[in-house]
């Protein structure tokens, strides 16, 4: 027997029962970004591998282990995008979006990483990435945080997430801290986990992210990043915190919140939750003033964040925050019986034209009235519009209420379109 076809592990179908929740979330995201003046940009799913090797870093786990990379027929090495920031920077350089310009842009779609699938973490996952270019002050850092806070409030997540904040300083202060951290870790090398030993020289700041208990105990006495921060970055951070304080956004300063790549600087932030176990980060961002230059452009100040759609939906569902009506896809179902010919289909078109917001499903394929009414009920519709030979002859429609204990009634077309049930 032939093997049953299945989706690739960690790459999931999003079924019709699930997509209304996705659409509801995406609508809130799109609306919030528009409120702040951000414009959508769409970038390819496949890029040259060198973009991510240069942008993310050859010594990172993403590039070393997690990318889906292949050679095309022309001999070029291509990669399914593991993240979108490098793609947006490439597009900005290629299309001259950065020179003497400020840009607020966002993009969304599937990303790909080969890792062990688990709840909230998949091999094909979806992200919304928000990027800003050409702005240097703490005000744009604050705007990104305020934007996400506004979104959390609209979704009802504001009571379920916590903002963690840190500053990484400039490249020179990071270099000094890096040297001090390596010197300290060398003294405790035997107590570090294997990943931390591997990262210790190539990417030592990522050791601070380790979840290993032994490594965490070693880090308790490690040098503190804030002792090495330059004055300008410190002032930038103080001003950012002042804006958040004045706006009433609460935060925790977490000195172990870092990014491992050299082009990151100054502000880093994460929105975390305790509701999802180990998959606690729902949104992360910060400044990456060195990335545009690293990818071949002229130096451009930049700041942004990314949020995982699957993880956000999991959090919304875990906290019971998806409104009851979100998954409703049909307002009314039209049922026909007897010798009515094309009357039902034509009537449905007239109703959709007269009521633009109406979601009307016609019972196609025939069947008895009983079976059609079962399909109407299963659709989730509030009412069934029943048309038989008498209704066709009299130009009327019988309305049956499927969710309320009300007697059925007969309406003319004009009476029907005036009913609130058809407002959509």
Radius of gyration: 28 Å
Q: Order of strands across the widest beta sheet?
A: 1-5-6-11-10-9-7-8
Q: How many DSSP-defined strands?
A: 16
Strand content: 15-25%
pLDDT < 50 stretches = none
**End-to-end distance, in Å?**
48 Å
Specify the structural class.
alpha+beta
What average pLDDT do the residues reach? 90
| Biggest sheet overview | 8 strands, mixed
Question: How much helix, percentage-wise, in residues?
Answer: 25-40%
Tertiary shape: elongated
How many H/I helical runs? 15
Oligomer: single chain
Structure description:
37% of the residues lie in helices and 20% in strands. It is built from 15 helices and 16 strands. The chain has helices at 19-35, 49-55, 61-66, 85-94, 138-155, 171-187, 194-202, 213-219, 231-247, 291-294, 309-318, 343-354, 369-378, 389-394, 413-417, and strands at residues 39-40, 46-48, 69-71, 77-80, 103-112, 124-133, 162-167, 252-253, 265-272, 281-287, 302-308, 332-336, 360-362, 383-387, 396-401, 409-412. Helix 12 (343-354) links the parallel strand 12 and strand 13.
